[in-house]
Write a structure and sequence with these properties.
Residues 754-768 have a biased composition (Polar residues). With 780 residues, this protein is of the alpha+beta class. The protein has 36 helices and twelve strands.
């Protein structure tokens, strides 16, 4: 168990690591040859020019301006200088709201820390509970004297913790409701002022029922001409182009290798480069590299053309889904937010994701298979979470010197040294847990892709939800349970069954020392490592040396990255959980969490301004998830405090804590009913206002031309294919607003749509549908 000296050593190591990362960043960022690594966002916006284009050769590599080294910390005030409205224009609402999560952490925990240190720390410090616990062989450290563990069983001092729990809850709820209201208003304002985008007019339709007499495209067109006659504009059916996408990706790889060897040849024309055809180029026949990759590219071009023809001609490649676009945002809102038929399993509509965030491979999944896929994913996640208890138990064994000595007695001469003992208990457990979790976000994202979500934002939100559950079960509860089981095993075996809950109640706050070490490793040194961008730095210079020939190539070599919401937001939520759980139990943990929120806010604000380039914009659609997880952390803290107080002989506090948990849940339901609709539903009033303003400003706008190619699969977006797509029927639209008959190939009676303009030519009326005689081709 970590002592105060162990925590001090861990803090020194992590602070030193963070300072080294920051110093390296401050030096590397001002070197001209790293400019595209640390300021890629400004290059993408076209407002920053490369310093390599001017000056002497040496000055292009190293910055000889010594004044820049004196001002090496000026990035900190610069990161805080940009006001929030300008930040939203610069980086988007998603990025601005993401930063507000860190600000909420500061708003919640700074007052809580001041109050808990002013009230609870003196109450805990002046008690003698741990002196009595030592008589029962329960281990503890000097840090635990600041926690609730030091309060004697049955003491009236526990009422102070109960009152503080109410104060912490009310303050947290106050901050949350103010932020929910603010962010909901920011979202509506952002959507209202946002430029015209295709997803504002488009709906994704899935589970289109088959018709024997019509293709999917004809069926979609017919359905929406009949049921949305005044607003339907055009549609784009969804193709299973996954095989074609693989061929295009393979061709891109071959082109990259060709560019590499061609650049190598231009640097040394005396000898043409050669390559081995065996595994990974390690053995096999040697051939001319450029001729080989030229032949491979030509072969892939032929396969791509054949696959394109097959995709267009074979109806089996047309999925029962389509992107349907409307003439107005109001029409799209009505379609996306209503049930289309009496059969709730057919013609399922939802808002189309932004075109750049569509995850095209999953659109090719049959809708009926999604239920099976989600069931298999749930089962896989359960077993992943369950079996990860094993490495968690291993990490907790490292946190105990006694456990290491029992398991590996040959290490006694090393670990008995004071420095090594402090290093093992104060630093090693946190870094090992961090290493165990390093690949987890990528695994959870793969599971979300298998589950079948069709947008990057939905993939990230589902992966973030699972990561949060994983952190809750394994990192938090698993660390407490396994830690208690390992450290208190001797006490469990020697005492009566009635005393075991009391020992567990004491052991829970004792695990605060482990979480302190983890916060320093992950939240201090880990966040500082984010700003250094070591991996993008190395990859950029490798590409720049081996592949880059032109400025365009150099721009493509940049990797600005983005906020990985599915990896970073659950980590933030773990800190909310730890802070809220330990605020009334072990307040000594709060300063470490406050430092994380402040430091991370500074780092990520700098990255958002200068580095990250988001792939999509969801207008803060993730905020209800963030709010809900903070509320769940608040309720979990109240339940755990209830259990802890009961083991401390204060059973009479149970009704008060139950009422507090119920009040918190009622507050959550109120916020959900009051504000969540702004994040999932587009109000018809707002849509109509934006449509009206746009018609007044651009009365002659060609909306069909803007929408008809917006949702074509990226592998189809080249000139040769787009020239003949309409001949092949890839895109269908309705040009004639006053069409009298809805055409159909079906051999059973079908209704038609009649539209007549009023005298002023303004509005159209939909007259009653009549039967249509398909054999005679005229209305009956």
């Amino acid at each position: 168990m970590a002592t105060l000296a162990d925590i001090g050593l861990a803090a020194a190591i992590n602070i030193l690591s963070a300072l080294i990362f920051l110093l390296l960043f401050a030096i590397l960022r001002i070197q001209p040859f790293n400019d595209r690594v640390y300021f890629p966002k400004w290059y993408l916006k076209g407002v920053r020019s490369s310093p390599l284009n001017s000056g002497a050769f040496a000055s292009k590599i190293v910055n000889f301006d010594f004044r820049a080294y004196i001002r090496f910390l000026n990035w900190m005030p610069a990161a805080l200088k940009m006001p929030e409205p300008e930040l939203i224009d610069h980086a988007g609402l998603d990025s601005a709201v993401y930063l507000r999560i860190y600000l909420i952490g500061l708003k919640i925990f700074v007052p809580i820390a001041l109050l808990s240190w002013a009230v609870l720390v003196p109450v805990n410090w002046t008690s003698d509970g741990l002196q009595l616990a030592k008589l029962r062989n329960v281990t503890s450290s000097n840090i635990d004297k600041l926690s609730i563990s030091n309060v004697e069983r049955g003491s009236d001092r526990f009422w102070a913790h109960l009152v503080m729990a109410y104060a912490f809850t009310f303050w947290t709820c106050y901050v949350l409701i103010r932020e929910y209201e603010k962010i909901a208003a920011m979202r509506l304002s952002f959507l209202q002022s946002e430029k015209r985008r295709a997803d504002q007019f488009t709906v994704l339709v899935r589970n289109v029922p088959p018709e024997s007499d019509e293709t999917i495209s004809e069926n979609v067109q017919h359905f929406f001409l009949v049921n949305h006659p005044d607003h339907y504009l055009t549609h784009q059916v969804v193709y299973n182009a996954n095989e074609l996408a693989k061929l295009v990706a393979d061709r891109q790889k071959m082109e990259n290798w060709f560019d590499y060897y061609h650049l190598k040849y231009t640097r040394n024309k005396e000898q043409r480069p050669r390559v081995k055809l065996g595994f990974l180029g390690l053995w096999g026949k040697k051939v001319d590299a450029m001729d080989h990759y030229t032949a491979e590219i030509e072969k892939l071009n032929e396969q791509i053309m054949e696959e394109r023809v097959r995709v267009k001609k074979d109806d089996k490649n047309v999925m029962p889904a389509a992107f349907v676009s409307f003439k107005t945002r109001w029409g799209a809102a009505v379609c996306a937010q209503t049930q289309q038929t009496k059969n709730p399993t057919e013609w399922l509509t939802e808002w189309a994701p932004e075109a750049r965030e569509v995850f095209w491979p999953n659109l090719a999944m049959p809708y009926v298979s999604l239920t099976i896929r989600r069931f298999l994913t749930h089962v896989s996640f359960f077993f992943l979470t369950f079996f990860f208890i094993i490495p968690i138990a291993f990490v907790q064994s490292l946190a105990s010197i006694e456990g290491i000595q029992k398991k590996a007695s040959f290490l006694n001469p090393i670990i008995e040294k004071k420095f090594m003992k402090s290093l093992i208990q104060g630093f090693l457990p946190g870094i090992v847990l961090k290493l165990f979790l390093i690949f987890l976000p990528a695994i959870l994202m793969i599971m979300s892709k298998f589950e079948g979500f069709v947008s990057i934002s939905s993939l990230e939100r589902r992966a973030a939800f699972r990561y949060y559950i994983f952190n809750l079960v394994n990192v938090f509860l698993g660390s407490i349970i396994t830690g208690s089981a390992f450290e208190q095993l001797d006490s469990f075996l020697k005492q009566s069954a009635n005393d075991i809950p009391r020992t567990v109640g004491v052991a829970i706050p004792i695990k605060a020392t482990f979480f302190i070490t983890y916060i320093m490793v992950d939240g201090w040194a880990g966040v500082a490592g984010e700003i250094l961008r070591l991996k993008p730095l190395v990859i950029f210079h490798l590409k720049n040396f081996f592949l880059v020939k032109t400025e365009k190539d150099r721009e493509e070599a940049m990797d600005p990255g983005q906020i990985d919401f599915y990896a970073t937001e659950p980590r933030i939520q773990l800190y909310f959980l730890l802070g809220l759980v330990y605020a009334p139990v072990t307040p000594v943990l709060l300063p470490f969490i406050i430092f994380f929120f402040g430091f991370a806010y500074l780092i990520f604000r700098h990255q958002i301004i200068n580095v990250y380039n988001q792939e999509y914009e969801s207008a803060a659609a993730f905020w209800p998830d963030v709010h809900g997880r903070i509320i769940s952390a608040l309720i979990i803290s109240q339940i755990l405090l209830l259990g802890l107080m009961s083991t401390k002989g204060k059973v009479q506090s149970t009704p008060f804590l139950l009422v507090l948990a119920i009040l918190t849940f009622v507050f959550h339901r109120f916020c959900k009913g009051r504000y969540e609709s702004a994040f999932v539903i587009n109000p018809l009033q707002e849509a109509m206002i934006k449509d009206t303003l746009e018609r007044a400003r651009e009365p002659n706008m060609n909306l069909k031309g803007f929408l008809q190619n917006a949702y074509i699969h990226p592998v189809f977006k080249d000139e040769e294919f787009e020239d003949d797509q309409f001949d092949e029927g890839l895109t269908e639209d309705s040009d004639d607003e006053d069409c009298v008959v809805v055409p159909t190939k079906r051999h059973r009676p079908r209704r038609k749509t009649v539209a007549s303009s009023n005298v002023s030519g303004g509005l159209s009326q939909s007259l009653p549908y009549n039967r249509f005689d398909t054999d005679k081709g005229k209305p009956v």
